[in-house]
Amino acid sequence: MTADDFRALLDEHWRALEEQAASAPNKVRTSELPSESDNGHLNVGVDHEGRRHLLVPLSSSQRVRTRGEGSALSLRERALEDSDSYVRYADLCCTRTDLDDVFTGLCGDVLQAVQGTPDRPLKTLYSVLDRWRALFQKSSGELGPEQLAGLFGELVVLRRLLESWPTATDWWLGPTGARHDVLAEPHAIEVKSSLAQEERRFRVHGTAQLEAPEGGDLHLVWFRLARSQGQGLRLVDLIDQIRRLADDESGFVAKLSMVGYHLGDTDLYREVRFTVEEERWYEITDSFPRVRSDSIPEPVRDVHYTIDLDTVMTQPLDKSQIDARLVEILRGD
User: Fold this and answer.
1) CA-to-CA distance for 275 and 333, rounded, in angstroms?
2) Are 236 and 272 in contact (CB under 8 A)?
3) What residue spans carry the region label Disordered (predicted)?
């Protein structure tokens, strides 16, 4: 079975369990999965509060390394007993129902991994969990206004690409420190966002940032954003929209964590809203003013400078031109 097959299987079982709540706070309604390890079948469960569980069977000698403090995941040992059997499980629970979709992806990875190594289900659970845990934990610090605006602008562009191409999260390279924020070879996009309400300026970091990829082209997208109260689009809602659109949701979440935004931080940013007050797209050609790498003396390093769009002679693209460029990018022309 593929990862998508496992996710669909998990959702089917959880939804069936959610039709009737567990009878008491310490109870979990369970359903046996067709996924089997050497210790027995894996199960899913839903508790009295509607939280989802994945139950991985243990051998008689195994003990669970309890985890969960400070994250949206908890791991503990749970025994299931009836008149005929007594089985101990490693019980992985998502403590936040708003992260159910991401938890489904994690559990799908566990099922797929157990399928390949059925003799060591607990070790497999630990391995997958270690890869995913960082995505659920809280950051040590909060992103500042400029960082949030920059992230918002990049995600607006990413959402537009995902609406036509659900694998476009692969093109989002901004969090990795790559030269351009989006690279769909031979096309690249650099995104700049500003909270200034009068000037149209942005900083360029390095001489390569406004250079097109070899044999390709580069477009600059500039946003004027306004931080708003009660209006505009919430950052958390934009992230949720992208998660639903993206084929590789876990890859997208991993890139968010590189920026310093973890899913465990959602409460910090729940009221962060932006309104796009202005959007400009430019094709970076020879006429667009910039510092070129071949014009910098060899000893000079770490070049940073500011461009004032109000003094740039190059005209921004109109809506039809923007749409045409997006079609070219999506087709890979």
Assistant:
1) 32
2) yes
3) 20-41
Q: CA torsion angle for 78, 264, 131, 180 (degrees, to 10)?
A: 160
Query: CA 86, 87, 92, 98 torsion: positive or negative?
Result: negative
Q: What is the pLDDT of residues 134-189, one digit of tens each?
A: 667 767 678 999 999 999 999 999 999 999 998 899 999 999 989 999 999 999 99
Q: Going by C-beta distance under 8 Å and a sequence separation of 6 or more, which residues neighbour residue 82?
A: none
Q: Tell which residue, 148, 144, 143, 141, has the closest CA to residue 274.
A: 148
pTM value is 0.72
Q: Residue type at 331?
A: R
Tokens of 169: 């999260």
Structure tokens at 139: 């950051």
Helix (H) or strand (E) holding 220: strand 217-228
Q: Are 231 and 273 in contact (CB under 8 A)?
A: yes
